[in-house]
Amino acid sequence: MNSSRKYIWAFLITLVIFLSVTVLSNYFDTQRINEVKAIDDSISLDILSSEIQFDLLKQTPCEYLGDSSLSHELDSLGSRLSYLENARGANDAQVIQLKSNYSLLEIKDFILMQSMSDKCKTKPAFVLYFYSNRGDCPDCQFTGSVLTALREAYPGVRVYSFDYHADISAVRTLVSIYRIAPEFPALVIHGKPTYGLKSLSQIEALMPEVKTSTTTATTTKK
Amino acid sequence: MHYILPTITQAFLFISLYIQVFLIITLVEHRDAMKKRPAVKSMRPEDMPTVSVIVPCFNEEATVIGTIQSLKQLNYPQEKLSIIAVDDGSTDDTWSYLLKYQNDPQISIYRKENGGKHTAVNLGIAKSTSDIIGCLDADSFVHPEALNRMLPSFMDPAVMAVTPAIQIRSPKKLLEYIQYAEYNIGIFLRKMYSTLNAIHVTPGPFSMFRRSLFSVIGPFKSAHNTEDLEIALRIHRHNFKIENCQHAFVYTTPPQTIRALVKQRVRWTTGFLLNISDYRDLLFSRKHGQIGTFTLPAGIISLASVLFFAFFSVVNAANSMTNSIKRYQLIGFQWHWPSFQWFYVNTTASHFMTLILLLSAVCFIFLGKRITSGTWKVSRDMLCYAFLYAFIAPVWVAISSVRAVTRNTGSWR
User: Structural domain of residue A104, as residue ranges?
Assistant: First the structure.
């Protein structure tokens, strides 16, 4: 084989390998997206089921209202979304779509849990966490780790995380209800916003009731 | 900005893969040449050329006797083989050891003021009248059949130099095993470059030259302490051929400490970069064959890749460590058993490309091993190489790059 042809053949073979691994990589990405969508659908159905169960049992004692079993699935969905967001970028259209669904599911779960705690007179331990991934929150990754540690230490705590800049009207409503300023990381504990990076012990001090909370955990994003 | 780093990464991976694919095509194309073992038996005794082997020595008292003895045991007519040992101003007992050979008719010994390896070799060339001139570093040892296997390559009148297959002598320590695997890759690569007429170095251990070559291209030069690399480039500039004989084994003594290894490789790599700068007319020159269109660009790309990936690995490791410390301050120590989930397996195109490149590097180690020992067995040197080399190589590439930019050649030892 003359040398020019060899250079061309080598280029073509390299190109074929390169394109093949790109296709393979895209295939795995699509599989991941489908897996996240499946979890998303499953949670939607579960939430609908919980809402109906709650409506049906409004007149019944609290002990018949089982705890929502969504926490583990929301957790799994959140960590998978976080991985996808890192891998594909925060501006990826599919990631944005999945994140929107996830945020709505979180809000639904939050409302349901609040209603249940109102009815049953329990003291819920909720944390709303607002982060930004526009490069203006270097501490958000650490806040995510602190909240994960909080959930592991106190399974009764429910953490709901939201992208502050997400173009979702329900999220914007939450921002206006709790009057959250664009300072990150922002946490809403007992309905009051607090800003800046906090250690586990600082958050524990803000939520002394966590040690007695009985509800289960949900997810920590970012 | 967000896309610049991934794009550069992909570009490096693509070019690195291209180099590997090119070598594999060359291997397939020349698979018969890999098997062929030339034998001097095909040469009539009267056709056998006279050969002088120059042994330049500087403070080699520990090994010089062994080196000369291995030359004396070469299976070659004694009257056609002479040994010229040149003491380049040693400050140890090298000269005393050489004096033991002062009455040996096959061996000539000379002593001169220290002037660098190239001056010692040039003195030997001036004293020699043989058809073929070889060099052998005084810390290396030859296989008895090495010369016989190399000389048939000179039957092609265009061949001006022949290089051997260099191996590490009896590896015992971890560092020696790492270099053993590396030298095995070198044996494979040198053979591939030989089939392309694109060998870029005629190494100190037992490279052979046609005597007439020096009257055309001149003697060895200091060449940033890499005279063996410079003369190879000069040979290519004159459009002569350099062959490789993969069955002519020469055993060299490797650096025994990481510090010595890094120092040696800094000298080699700095010399490579500075000599390329001196011979930049060869780069991408089709007139000079594939030395300029493949070997030299591939070498530069390889060094740049090592620097690029090492830099970002260090930055990532530093970030990861800083983040871990900060997390510890925020939440204390937390231990989690690692869990495996397919969802989180890295399946990016870059990751697949890296795996393919690693796989081909492993294939090259096996091919080198196949040439040297005839086996395909996995050995400890491969594992040592794979796990440790990646941590050491970036160090000398980084130092060499700085030295090349500042044109600081450094000292030989």
Answer: 3-212
